[in-house]
Design brief:
heterodimer, A: mainly alpha, 0% strand, B: six-stranded mixed sheet, four-stranded antiparallel sheet
Chain lengths: 246, 310
């Protein structure tokens, strides 16, 4: 079997194991929807126009970055990665299978959030901008996956993973136009948030939801996101470990 | 074709020459040599921290060596080549399979990484998990999970198998079962490198073994050779009531509450001892006469190497 066939095969086993843990699978999907529900109750009907694209961003970041940073660390500390490395399965094929699965879950999650926004909260899906949305989602999912692997590479141990990942993700989401609108935030905080990738992803999705295809392709934002993705790839290649750190 | 087959069969499965491995200033392996012939079960025996796992992991390709030469099935394991990985199977000390898949699924999944896997049902039967084939791994007991490890290592039908402490944590009956499985593998012509700190395991399974201590090999041979070479003495052990001493001329020594005599002329020594006991009217409590076991040799050798080092 060639590497790509092996990666696809690995993705299918990954998927089978994923659905065998129904509580974990359920909350992966329920979590973003729960946020959507709470925000709309608190901030009122009109807020859905802001929160639907924002929760899509949140979904992509958690299903790629958070998921991979934690689960690859767990796989490493429980000896799964070391075992794989002793077999002829190319290690890239194993990682491609895992990343592919994370991205598959992400796409399903995005579709669900968009559908809930459209049906329950009357936030129309900007169909005319679909090719641009797919491009933005693809660049973001790839970059946040790479950053997830990078953080897994730097992670000291599995016990620390949830705390460290949340300490990275939550503050970044708070200053990136995802949970809170940044209009009234001080300039310096906006400057910081524009250095980070999530802000550009959130702004792009908000624009596309507000103006459809008229928003155009957010090349500059995509550039920042992709640059962070490259940093992720470099750090992952340098620090990735197949065995628990001692 | 025939000549190259013969050459391949004659060439040892593993050759290790002057192997060294340091972690910073700590030398885990300090220059060892050994060979493992094809079809042989070779054991690395030694206490924890002797350097067994480091050695095995260098041969598996999990670790880079600091010095020396290593050949596994004609490959350098340090280069992590797929062609080598297709021909070896590894049982690590730690388990690591997806707990939500069934035994059959895991064996199928791993078998698919190899060019010519062994049939799934055969692998499962070989490790004695036929009744649990459709159970998810997380439902299995600790000993059964360890057998899944072995099944995963066998899935690709490897020529050479690395077993690192395969029975640690097993109850006595599970250990016997595991030993039977390993014996079954040798009948299939597999070469096995076993790392263990259990003397009985090495004695039962290995054709040849090397005793390791503090990063060095301190003895190599068949179990019989090692027992014979270390000494051809027999041990006499017994207890005496407090305050009583056996006559000095017999050369006894004390190990705690037990008196020990290392005898090379057993009949005479026993006669003298029992004669003395009858004359004194004392009982030689818990009297034992045993031939040295591999355990005695091992304890003696590792203790000697410890004294040298310190």
């Amino acid at each position: 079997m060639n590497g790509i066939a092996l990666a696809v095969r690995q993705l299918r086993y990954e998927n089978r194991a994923f659905w065998r843990n129904p509580p974990a699978a359920f909350f992966t999907f329920a979590f973003p929807l729960l946020f959507m529900l709470i925000f709309n109750v608190i901030f009122g009907e009109g807020a859905a126009r802001f929160f639907t694209p924002a929760i899509i961003v949140f979904s992509v970041v958690t299903a790629t970055f958070t998921n991979l940073a934690m689960n690859i660390t767990f796989a490493r500390d429980f000896g799964v990665l070391k075992r794989i490395r002793g077999t002829p399965l190319p290690t890239w094929a194993y990682l491609a299978g895992r990343i592919g699965h994370a991205i598959g879950v992400t796409l399903l999650l995005v579709a669900i959030v968009a559908a809930v926004g459209a049906v329950l909260y009357d936030v129309p899906i900007p169909w005319d901008a679909l090719p641009i949305i797919i491009l933005v989602l693809a660049v973001a999912a790839a970059s946040f996956s790479a950053l997830g692997l990078a953080v897994a590479g730097l992670m000291p141990n599995a016990d620390a993973a949830p705390a460290i990942v949340n300490a990275i993700v939550l503050p970044v989401l708070f200053i990136s136009n995802v949970f809170i609108q940044m209009e009234n935030a001080p300039d310096w905080l906006n400057t910081i948030s524009y250095v980070l990738p999530v802000r550009h992803f959130a702004d792009a999705m908000l624009d596309l939801y507000a103006s459809g295809a008229d928003a155009g392709v957010p090349w500059a934002g995509l550039g920042v996101i992709a640059a962070w993705g490259l940093v992720g790839v470099v750090v992952a290649l340098r620090f990735f470990s197949w065995e628990p750190r001692r | 074709m025939t000549t190259s087959d013969t050459a391949a069969a004659a060439e040892p499965a593993i050759v290790v020459r002057g192997l060294r491995k340091s972690y910073g200033s700590f030398e885990a392996v300090r220059g060892i040599d050994f060979e493992v012939a094809r079809g042989e079960v070779f054991a690395l025996l030694g206490p924890n921290g002797a350097g067994k796992t480091t050695t095995v992991e260098i041969l598996e390709g999990h670790r880079q060596r600091t010095g020396g030469e290593v050949s596994v099935l004609g490959f350098d394991p340090g280069r992590s080549e797929r062609a080598l990985k297709e021909r070896i199977g590894i049982v690590l000390q730690q388990t690591g399979v997806d707990e939500y898949l069934t035994v059959r699924e895991v064996v199928e999944m791993v078998g698919g990484y190899y060019p010519s896997p062994r049939p799934v049902d055969e692998v499962i039967e070989l490790v004695g998990l036929t009744d649990q084939a459709n159970e998810r791994i997380r439902k299995l007991s600790g000993g059964q999970k360890r057998r899944v490890d072995l099944a995963v290592a066998l899935a690709g039908d490897p020529e050479l198998l690395f077993l690192d402490e395969p029975t640690t944590g097993f109850d006595p009956s599970a250990r016997r079962q595991a030993w039977e499985t390993v014996r079954g593998l040798t009948l299939l012509g597999k070469t096995i490198l076993l790392a263990t700190h259990f003397m009985d395991e090495a004695q039962v399974l290995a054709n040849r073994l090397a005793i390791m201590s503090r990063g060095r090999i301190i003895a190599t041979g068949t179990p019989g050779e090692l027992i014979g070479a270390a000494s051809d003495t027999t041990l006499i052990r017994f207890r005496l009531p407090d305050g009583l001493r056996p006559p000095d001329r017999l050369g006894l020594r004390r190990e705690g509450a037990v008196w020990v005599l290392e005898s090379t002329v057993l009949t005479r020594d026993l006669h003298e001892l029992s004669g003395w006991a009858m004359a004194e009217d004392v009982e030689l409590a818990d009297l034992e006469v045993t031939r040295r076991s591999l355990e005695d040799v091992y304890l003696q050798l590792t203790a000697e190497s410890g004294e040298e080092a310190s």
